[in-house]
Amino acid sequence: MFADVKPLPPDPILGLSKLFVDDPRERKIDLGVGVFRAADNTTPVLKAVKIAEQRLLERQATKAYAPPAGVPGFVEGAARLVFGEDSPVLRDGRSAGVQTPGGCGALRVGAEILRRLEAGTVYVGAPTWPNHAPLLTEAGLKLEMIPYYDAQARAIEFDGFIAAVEKLGPGDVLLVHGACHNPTGADLDRAQIDAIIETADRRGFLPFVDLAYHGFAAGLDDDAYIVREMARRLPELLVSYSCSKNFGLYRERTGALLIVGETGERAGAIQSHALNVARGMYSMPPAHGGSIVAEILQSPELEAKWRDELAHMRDTVKANRRLLARTAAEMQLGDALAYIEGQNGMFSLLPLSEKQVLAMREKHGVYMTGNARINLCGVNAGNVAHLCEAYRDVTQG
Length: 397
Ligand code: LMR
Known about the structure:
Layout: H1 15-22, E1 29-30, H2 47-59, H3 74-83, H4 88-91, E2 95-101, H5 102-116, E3 121-126, H6 132-137, E4 142-147, E5 149-150, E6 155-156, H7 158-166, E7 173-177, H8 190-203, E8 206-211, H9 220-223, H10 225-233, E9 237-242, E10 254-260, H11 264-281, H12 288-297, H13 300-330, E11 347-349, H14 354-364, E12 366-367, E13 373-375, H15 384-396
Parallel strand pairs: 1-12, 3-4, 3-7, 7-8, 8-9
Antiparallel strand pairs: 2-10, 5-6, 9-10, 11-13
Bound molecules: (2S)-2-hydroxybutanedioic acid (LMR).
(2S)-2-hydroxybutanedioic acid is lined by residues 13, 33-34, 129, 131, 182.
């Protein structure tokens, strides 16, 4: 059975890490996988996480199965962060949720539920995170790209986006990035979000918000604007939530699928399908990451520490954006990279062709994904000049 199987190429994002590690050059820059890095290029465990882990270790008395919906306190804590402290949705009991293996798990469980509900097509603005396609289509859904970002103008093409959204109807799904758009870094403003919600209300399609970088744009409350407004103004909503970046729990695979229904009963019915889907795929999520998050969110002192650490990560990425945009200007690259300063989250797209991306890697040891997405966390005072020189070389020759 295995004899004729051809191996597949490595994943376009995760595969970059190995290429980078294998590159013997000292002057190399990793702008690949979306992982936070401090100025010394490390991805340390957050202090709040370390303390929570120590407490859990001391207290833990069993490794027996955790409940299928997740460890106690995790989904409730995530829902509070996402919907807000005094959310009407939580107060009215219109939400439910399940812990999932990361944001990917939430997207996949959500996709399986949508297939069961015989959803029409899932629409998403282009370009999007490449893993959206397998996560949704391998569950049997149809995925269609609509305009989102104009790479030439380095801006959202909202007219094209909203015109496409206008055509959606009941049974259709609109997948939107909650904050810190991946890969463009170009987020919708509040007026644009309001227009999407007004359209969803009128046309009756279901929004599915992917919130994987909560807290990295402007803060936990601001970044949740789209989810909170949708939950307030629309009858139904799905949210895939990731704690990989904001809690730095990447390898612990910690996320949640949050469900908002017109009533608590309806949200609960969808939750029962989420549990049933999960049972058929991986039974239940790993407990450790969820326990850490619950421990942090149940302790005011740890939560305050975590919020500080998240603010520090956000400020670091913003400072890196500024550093790159301003160094490029100082190095006479004009305002070619000025737009980067005003964007959000870890990513921006550079105006480079695939050939130029390859030249950045092969000639200069600068690693980014094939679509010229850079992770700003990899930029620092020690390498920004090299990055700008490389950029000049491949663009101006
Ligand atoms: C990324 O986009 O780099 C991250 O979300 C990691 C991943 O799983 O692709």
